[in-house]
# Entry
Amino acid sequence: MSRRVVVTAVGLISPVGIGTEASWEAIRSGRCGIGRITAFDASAFSCQIAGEVKGFDPYLYIEKKEVKKMARFIQFAIAAA
# Structure
């Protein structure tokens, strides 16, 4: 039995860009999303580099009262969906 699949959209929230077009352009131009951690003080850790999503505003995708109830990774998932 064969099944057909249709991809109707792709949502990306990544260290190189927010949105499919921004991420794809960054990948094509060879930009790197890895750098020093800025989201918290990482000086106590042996590794201080990571791929952080910068410039993400959850309020563009989710109501204010809902943002307070969810972790950042869930906000990324909802925005990408």
